[in-house]
Amino acid sequence: MTIIDAVTPPAAPAPDRPPAPSPARSTYQRRVADYWNAEENPVNLELGRIDDLYHHHYGVGEADWSVLDDDPDPARRRERVTAELHRLEQAQAELLAHHLGPLSPSDRVFDAGCGRGGGSVVAHLRYGCHADGVTISAKQAEFANDQARRRGIDDRVRYHHRDMLDTGLPAGEFAASWNNESTMYVELDLLFTEHARLLRRGGRYVTITGCYNDAYGRASREVSLINAHYICDIHPRSAYFRALARNRLVPVHVQDLTAAALPYWELRKQADHLVTGIEDTFIAAYENGSFQYLLIVADRV
User: Fold this and answer.
1) Cα-flanking dihedrals φ and ψ of residue 117, to 5°?
2) Rounded mean pLDDT, 108-126
3) What's the predicted TM-score (pTM) here?
4) How far apart are CA 178 and CA 176, in angstroms?
5) Helical H segments across the chain, by residue range
6) Who has the most CB within 10 Å: 28, 34, 213, 289?
7) Does the CA dihedral 89-92-97-100 come out positive or negative?
């Protein structure tokens, strides 16, 4: 999609009110912050180095399995697999960004749980908009701001070391907001209260998230293993829709991406240089029906 050109220079974002002294105020939040401050996972870093778009989520779409073909140069095969995994995660980021619009360069968007910042850059490149990302990890915020400076977009894309439940950002000034695989770290009602506060009336909220399938019953063994691996607490599918409704966020589109997510995991399982040990668990959870990968789009009313 072509970036929309601004006819007149966009107004500068309104000044933020001061953030809380420390974004990690509970023991759990400090553990999560410590985890992401220490994280140096090749599956995040090697993929991001390809084009300096660093994501902390998974991919969707059919994989090009030819990247697994034998190659006399093992390094070249490794590069092909890495590039294909990055293509799939970039496709996921573009899918989410597509559902944020239409947006203009004067609009402001909010990336909750922004990680190393790739999603905010994708939204800015697509729409030309201002973007504010928030992460509980000081290391991630510093890294993401450095990337924005290197791209020359730091006047429009900024990252903050804050709690996404209490951002300190101005109310009602955001045209769109999202969570990309970060809702499982917080209470949904508190999260959606903040999104509803930040969004203007008619603003758009989007999330792509893993959730456990209520129809399966309680959380499965595989879901519990994923929780332990990432120090998170995966919510049931139904909890999203109840919490959205309580916070003036009305779903307008829901898409089950579970089948579309499987190729990413099946390919990643074959990438010896990128595996983290959780790949079989994700595949089993998707295949036994206990875990789902959903896109939810809602409007602020």
Assistant:
1) 100, 0
2) 97
3) 0.90
4) 7
5) 27-38, 42-48, 74-98, 118-127, 138-151, 188-198, 221-230, 237-246, 258-269, 279-288
6) 213
7) negative
